[in-house]
Amino acid sequence: MNDTLVRIKRAVLSGRYMFSEKARLEMEADGLTELDEAESILNAVAIYKKIRSRSPFRKQRKEYLYVIQSTNLDGLVIYSKGKLVREAGNETYYFLISSKRSI
What we know:
alpha+beta; YaeB-like fold; 5-stranded mixed sheet; 3 helices; 5 strands; 30% helix; globular
């Protein structure tokens, strides 16, 4: 398993994750809960895609977003996109930018 995915899973397992307003709206529209999202990430076997952030609000020069597509415990396929956030040189949490049912 990819080291980055392990770090993401550890952050989620320890409750160190947050959702953007966009992710919360997408979850609400699809009837998903935070638990659905957490289960999906913990069930993932691989990172689907790694992309470079183009956001003008990013804090670092290079910032990567990780796309994960996996099922929750009910078998529902969920798409999420997020980033590992570092504060004071330490990885502190996983920030979900997008969270919705996968098409």
